[in-house]
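Support reply, case 0932

Customer input (verbatim):
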Amino acid sequence: MNDEQAVAAGHSPTAGAGRPPAVRVLTGAAGVLLAASGVVHAQLYVDGYRYVHVVGVLFVVQAAASFGLAALLLAGGFLRPPALVHLAATGTALGALAGFAASRTVGVFGFTERGLQPAPQALVSILAEAATVLALLTAGYVTVRRGKVQVGA
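Our regenerated output:
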């Protein structure tokens, strides 16, 4: 099917064009995982973190960024998000992991926690964010190996 036929059929001629199926699957999986991280942070905010000075706001910001970037990643099969979306999503997941580590070591604005508490949200969050980073780095590696990187677009 050429571009004119794709448009006539109601499809985007660039949707997924030139992207290996593995990259589409990894990007979609990263979207779902990042959304799961957002859900955990939103739930924790509602369940009491909203009362923690500064940290509560950071939980809302992380949840909102995760939901927005997850939507862009999940639409990637149709919109082909540029590499900047992948970088932003990776940064969001890494930032959440860094915040988790800091809250268990040096503290975040005076707020500290211990171990994998609150359970099970702490573990779910760690796994979702680590898997998001892994999926996006793998998708990036496959894309670069094929020589098709879209920055901006």
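We compared this against your earlier run and they match. Two observations from our side: Residues 9-15 have pLDDT under 50 and may be disordered. Residues 21-46 form the longest helix (26 residues). Please reopen the case if you see a mismatch on your end.
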